[in-house]
Design brief:
Elements lengths: L5 E4 L1 H4 L23 H7 L3 E4 L25 H13 L3 E6 L3 E3 L3 H9 L13 E2 L9 E2 L2 E2 L2 E6 L5 H18 L3 E4 L7 H12 L6 E4 L6 H6 L5 E2 L2 H12 L3 H12 L12 E3 L8 H4 L6 H10 L3 E5 L24 H4 L6 H14 L2 H5 L1 E7 L3 E7 L4 E7 L5 E6 L5 E4 L6 E3 L4 E6 L3 E7 L1
Parallel strand pairs: 1-2, 1-13, 2-3, 3-9, 9-10, 10-11, 12-13
Antiparallel strand pairs: 4-8, 5-6, 7-8, 14-15, 15-16, 16-21, 17-20, 18-19, 18-21
């Protein structure tokens, strides 16, 4: 998993699906759009695809109606099976969004509760279901939700039948679609004992099955150690990546990298956290950065820091997008591949491709430890060292050339993998080099 470079697609938006599912329209295989993007994935250096929710739902995908059928707005089960087979032939693994904390109100078991009330055999499937009070939907009962949204009904993950339903669904996804892993939505809201049991079950379905959890706050190690997950979303560094550039304060991201990955005391130094610059829930990084010239260095750090880098679809061309009036629509657009390549920041895609190539061919960047070498307000340098390789990363976010004087304990020469293999001598354990404005170097020690 540490050799993975993820591409993240939110299918409903990416495919231009209707906002609402009428559950009666003919199947529309919009998901086949992915075929046209496979060459782009390979050119970008992607070897893993994270597909957001795509099973039958009421609207945005996170309000599931049926775990066993692909949403008719995207296609059918055969559509998904064929796409995953095509991706696998190209060496691209696929993980799906596992939305098991809650369902939508159109989930078949919840509809049975709506129709049959206290006589429904599925009342115990839902957390906090209580008759005698009315929900905002005027049901003669109330129930627990995700974050107060009554269109998202919390499942009772202590119920054996609920757990079995979820387990059988995932086994079905593995057997029928040959998925390679799951990203668990709202993992930080789920019972840790359920996560542990569920993770162990999933890991037993397929060798190297990848289990990543969405965790916004808290000690990431808890979900990995106690919940037996392989990875969690690294929201701490997500914030530091953009704000350290906006505030001209590399001390912020340096602090997070040290706290998480420092060889001496890093809390998560051996854990493959899932790193990202943006996703389907947060503003696009091109809209968040005050200076678009910082995109290059932000992605340089993303691809060279410990963990697993991920690109959110469209952001490789500097696509913008912000939450507007509480809506996520701008974050989740339908994108035409050809027109996207002509966007204002289309140059960024080539840079990311180069970074991905360097990363995938570097044992130090995939597996090495982390050590900070230098930090200032607009300059940062760190090393990644594995058994056989040492790489030094230096970034300069200022509008002026910056000189770096670094203590290098080993080697005779530095060779720049980013800049036409320029070389710099190491003399008496010291190396000096310049970095261009808004520039970076990835130097391998020879």
């Amino acid at each position: 998993m540490k050799q993975s470079i993820f591409y993240h697609i939110y299918p409903m938006g990416f495919c231009g699906a209707p906002k609402e599912n009428d559950f009666s329209s003919p199947v529309n295989e919009r998901l086949n759009k992915i075929y046209d993007w496979i060459l782009h994935f390979k050119e970008l250096g992607i070897n893993a695809l994270y597909l957001g929710p795509l099973f039958s739902s009421t609207s945005h995908g996170y309000d599931t109606a049926d775990f066993y059928h692909v949403d008719r707005r995207l296609g059918n089960n055969e559509t998904l099976k064929n796409i995953i087979n095509a991706l696998h032939r190209e060496g691209i693994k696929v993980i799906l969004d596992g939305v098991f904390h809650h369902t939508g109100r159109d989930f078949w078991a919840f509809k049975d509760v709506i129709n049959n009330g206290e006589k429904s055999q599925y009342c115990s499937w839902f957390s906090g279901l209580s008759f005698g009070r009315r929900s905002p939907y005027n049901d003669p009962f109330t129930y627990d939700t995700w974050n107060g949204h009554y269109n998202l009904v919390k499942l009772n993950l202590q119920n054996v039948d609920v757990k079995n339903h979820i387990y059988y669904a995932v086994k079905f996804w593995v057997d029928e679609f040959h998925i390679d892993g799951l990203r668990l939505d709202a993992a930080d809201c789920m019972d840790i004992n359920f996560l542990r049991e569920f993770s162990d079950f999933c890991h037993g379905l397929k060798e190297n099955f990848f289990m990543a959890g969405e965790v916004i706050h808290g000690d990431y190690k808890r979900w990995i150690d106690e919940g037996h997950l392989d990875s969690v979303t690294n929201y701490e560094c997500y914030k530091g990546l953009y704000s350290s550039h906006n505030d001209k304060n590399y001390f912020e991201i340096a602090y997070s990298l040290n706290r998480e990955f420092c060889e001496e005391y890093g809390l998560y130094k051996n854990l493959p956290l899932y790193n990202f610059a943006d996703n389907h829930d947060v503003d696009r990084v091109a809209s968040t950065l005050k200076n678009p010239s910082h995109l290059y260095n932000l992605y340089t750090i993303l691809f060279t820091m410990p963990g697993i880098p991920s690109i959110y679809y469209g952001s490789e061309w500097g696509m913008d997008g912000k939450k507007t009036n509480g809506s996520d629509d701008e974050l989740r657009p339908c994108i035409d591949l050809n027109s996207a390549k002509s966007r204002k920041y289309a140059w960024l895609s080539g840079c990311i491709s180069r970074l991905a190539h360097i990363r995938r061919n570097s044992g130090a960047l995939c597996y090495g430890n982390y050590e900070q070498l230098y930090v200032n307000h607009e300059q940062l340098a760190f090393s990644r060292k594995s058994v056989d390789e040492t790489v030094i990363v230096a970034v300069n976010s200022s509008d002026k050339i910056a000189s770096f004087d670094l203590n290098i304990k080993y080697g005779n020469k530095l060779c720049d993998l980013l800049n036409k293999e320029e070389t710099f001598d190491i003399n008496c354990g010291k190396a000096r080099f310049d970095v261009n404005p808004y520039g970076a170097r990835i130097l391998i020690v020879k």
